[in-house]
Amino acid sequence: MRHETVASPEEAVDRLEAIYEAAVEAERAALDRFVSGGAVPTEAERAAFRYPALHLHWNAENLPPATRRAWAKLQLPGDYATTVTQPAAFRAYLLEQLRPLAGEYGVRISVGRSEQEIPYPYVLEGGDELARGGVSAAALARHFPVPMLSAVGDETADALWKYREGEPRPLALFDAVRVDYSLRRLVHYTGSDWRHVRPWILLTNYQRYVEQFTGWALNELARPGSPYSRLVLPGGASVGREDSPEAGAELVAAAPWQRFQMPAYHLLRGDGRDGVTIVNIGVGPSNAKTITDHLAVLRPHCWVMIGHCGGLRQSQQIGDYVLAHGYLRRDKILDELLPPEIPVPALAEVQVALQEAAVQVTGEQGDALKRRLRTGTVVTYDDRNWELRWSQERLRINLSRAIAVDMESGTLAAQGYRLRVPYGTLLCVSDKPLHGEIKLPGAATAFYQRAVSEHLAIGLATFEILRGQLDGLHSRKLRAFDEPPFR
Length: 487
Prior knowledge:
By secondary structure, the protein is α/β, with parallel strands linked by helices. It contains 14 helices and 15 strands. It folds into 2 domains: 2-184, amp nucleosidase, domain 1 (2-Layer Sandwich), CATH 3.30.1730; 190-471, Nucleoside phosphorylase domain (Rossmann fold, 3-Layer(aba) Sandwich), CATH 3.40.50.1580. Strand 9 and strand 10 (275-280) form a beta hairpin. Helix 6 (207-222) packs across helix 13 (441-466). GO terms for molecular function: AMP nucleosidase activity.
């Protein structure tokens, strides 16, 4: 199918939606026929099972105006392209990227069918549509496109792609098949439809933060004038403004969050796009990398880690906060993709917002706030029992001037840097392993009751501050010199 030039970004997204919906409908119809004992798809039919492609051409005749915007910018004249999935769901994002490129650069936009086939599991909504008929997976794989891990990768994000004369440069970090892969994994891990994930994401390593979040969310839904409209729970149930507080609490209590490895809760705003998601990622850098690999394809505005850490300084108290401005990465999980010697910078916009939010929530500032909130380096380990290697680790901790230790923050920051998602870390000291202060059961309960609610409130207030700073938030610190145009 040839690519057709369109007159506007809006027409481009309309055409992407039409091509995608036609491809999905054709593949679903062929699958239904096959599992019902009908014919296999012909070569001509299978040619329709393809993602739409989006192409831009810039001849550099129109020199763009100077802008401080870090995204929707072109460095070199020529062709740019990507494949697109779920264009209706990503419509607002696509228009946000295309409008500056069309208006400021005068790019020519064209749309058509790509050569990239849609794997058949990605056109199924419920997942059990093929249960009838006794058709085996091997039989389906002979006649329909299947997910091929060899075709799914992060070469663009990891700067591994190579320019070849005559081929377009990448328009986006992720192509359609990479996005579809992650959308399905998000459903698996979080127990949520990926469409409910909001652009402001809190990541935590303790269920108690989730309990505080759901309590706050129910209060927001009951509050007159609140901008929030619905709380979506793991497993698919939801609480709306029309539900009584008692009914909402029952729905939250009944949510089967234990069935999912990293359950997620989503508080939606009335505009249908904004809101806050919280994910309990559990403990460890492996989970931290796994979930952010998949969340990144949704191009969120920011993710912030709120959780517990061990304080490494005598002057710290249980319940104090740590605002990370640097990371000693001892998690090892990203060493091949982002070597430890590559600095992961703190993002000024997020750091300032976190500190301003702490002032708002605690009511403290100046020296009073500094006594409770300390800025410094966090060391992230892959070994929960790192203390047993203290004689080997003490030199690195001393050289780094680290003030806290955890198992997720360095990974989450590195993933944000690697995948161009703004990030931040605000931790709460729950024990002091080097100074004999551990979480005894009674002390732990008192700590949780006192600290978790305030800590969560600071994270939420941070997002309120950042909502009005999107141009600065999506910083040039996260973009390479040969970056794809799309954010």
